[in-house]
Design goal:
The protein is an alpha+beta fold. The protein has helices spanning about 40, 45-55, 60-70, 70-85, 105-130; strands at about 60, 90-95, 100-105.
Length: about 130
Amino acid sequence: MARALPNRNKPARSATPARAHTPAHTAPAHAPELPELDRLIHERIRLGIVSALATNESLSFNDLKRILKTTDGNLSVHARKLEEADYVSCTKYFEGRVPRTQYRLTPAGRRALARYLDQMEAWIRVTREEE
């Protein structure tokens, strides 16, 4: 004779009544409103590029690579993203037969960095107020 198998789609019944889940820690009544960070600048290498260019009129590719301690490929990819956003300008030229690449922070890049720094300062203020 065949036995009936338990229905695996139904939850098993418990002898104890179900309790409402109460979290051990509840969120504060008023969570601070934090500004959205500029994700384009927030990445470490890109932040390094715009920061270095903010304090220098221009920097060569090799200067940036040395300052940021990164590889050619990594710097190229991140610099290109900043170029596409019009945060940095790139000038390529030859010195004799040697190719050179020079970067400058654009006015749009300078404004974006200033906004980013304001956003970070707001995060810092909120964090310090919570201590």
